[in-house]
Amino acid sequence: MADGSLSDEPFYGAKNNQNGRFGDIIYIPAISKVEEHAKLSGPSVLRDLLNDILSDVVQSGQAYSDFGAAVKTFAGSIRQEETTDGRSLSGFEDELNSLLESWRVMFKLDFLLPTTPEIIKSMLEWDIIDKFYGRSQEIDMYGSGFQRYFIYSLIQLSSRYLRTKHTKKSNDFIPSMRLVLFEEPEAFLHPPQQEYLAANLRELAGNDNWQVVCATHSSHFVSKNAKDLSAIIRLRRFNGEVKAFQISDSDWASIVSANQEINKIAENYPKMKLQEEDAKSDMEAVKYFLWLNPDRSGAFFANYVLLVEGRTEVTLINKLIGDKKINNPYPGMYVLDCMGKYNIHRFMNLLCHLGIPHSVLHDDDHNINEHKKINQLIQDSKDPTLTMSIKCIPGNLEEMLGLNLRCRSDAKPQHVLCLYESRKIDKIKLKSFCELVASCISFNPSNLAE
């Protein structure tokens, strides 16, 4: 209805419609065969495409008219042609009619023009021509990645060729919705190919009456949708029940409002001063889009996430876990670089709305000046259920480890790792850091997804 509500009035043919009949569903499972989507003997995407094209050609094209004339000529000629023993179609008609004469009826054979479905089923076939070898190849000779992309290419073309419905010849309800259910679209594709396919799927979803739903384990697909976070749905199994987490419009408004709290802190500290554009709420979506690259988007697939300030912490913690100096009691942890303390609350707010358990480890910076309020902002951003713990490094990482680094900030990760590898970090201080990290990731496993 005009106000967006659903009408209670029945429409013509409503009683004859099956429940849930809302349009065409195209399902591509994780493991599928090309023939399921490209067969011409039964329902398939390729058959629907060809049928739509040929239907228009048959109705108005000269080729089909010429074909009809040729069939008529053929019918006249073939009726008279005889076999080596003198049999013919016309002779068969004559002899049968002589037997039926007393009944005052006549038998007649007719040659009919094939319909569009009959042409597609009986007169068409398709091949894959390998340009390198110059001959046709069975599609099974190609890898699964190509086969799945071939299937998707058919669907992509259908968005152009099947964009509009033919004029309805009756008042029957004919839904125009097309729903594509794509399971693991990233399967068998290299990362660049995944990104290309993700872009094409977003373009497909932009067409009228088309919706695309992908079930993916690929951070490349998620990162390319980071500008539209509401399009991401995260499923989490908790105590045997699967729950879906999605950022609604009201959720997004709540996230933006919470994220803007740091702007109030910045007003009182000159070195935190923001440009006018940076303080606008519209900038929040842009920030997430820039930050959520394929690497950071791995957090969406983690059982739990450890939020840290920067790459130095990520590099060192992952190395310490790999060297068994930090025990990771539960698999599936992701260490997320928040690009500074000022952004930790932003990632906490995002993870909370997507149902992702997490802990936080950050410098306390002696809890002075603006850091006192930022530290409190991080504390205030915790979720009672999903934020497992918030721990502080006394001072900062370099102080805790007793390091005197003289390098650019972007070179800190490699310098710290080099000092660790060469055993130049005090063992007692390193052990204290390991224990601090371990306290962040040691919690009741019942809070994690199954």
Model description:
The protein is α/β, with parallel strands linked by helices and 450 residues long. It has 3 domains: 21-40 and 125-165 and 174-217, P-loop containing nucleotide triphosphate hydrolases (Rossmann fold), CATH 3.40.50; 42-81 and 88-104 and 113-124, no CATH class; 251-447, no CATH class. 42% of the residues lie in helices and 13% in strands. It is built from 17 helices and 11 strands. The strands form 4 sheets. The chain has a 4-stranded parallel beta sheet, sandwiched between helices. Strands 1-4-5 form a 3-stranded parallel beta sheet. The chain has a two-stranded antiparallel ribbon with strand order 2-3. A hairpin with a 4-residue loop joins β2 and β3. The longest helix has 19 residues, at 62-80. The mean pLDDT is 85.
Please tell me the total number of domains: 3
From the alpha-carbon coordinates, what is the Rg to the nearest angstrom? 33 Å
Helix and strand element order: EHHHHHEEHEHEHEEHHHEHEHEHEHHH
Task: Give the tally of β-strands.
Answer: 11
Principal-axes geometry comes out as elongated
Q: Can you tell me the residue ranges where pLDDT is under 50 for at least 5 consecutive residues?
A: none
- Cross-sheet strand order for the largest sheet: 9-8-10-11
- Main sheet record: 4 strands, parallel
* Mean pLDDT score: 85
Q: Helical segment tally? A: 17
Instruction: Tell me the β content.
Output: 5-15%
Q: How widely separated are the two ends?
A: 43 Å
Which range best describes the helical content: under 10%, 10-25%, 25-40%, 40-55%, 55-70% or over 70%? 40-55%
**What kind of oligomer do you see?**
single chain
Which structural class matches the secondary elements?
Answer: alpha/beta
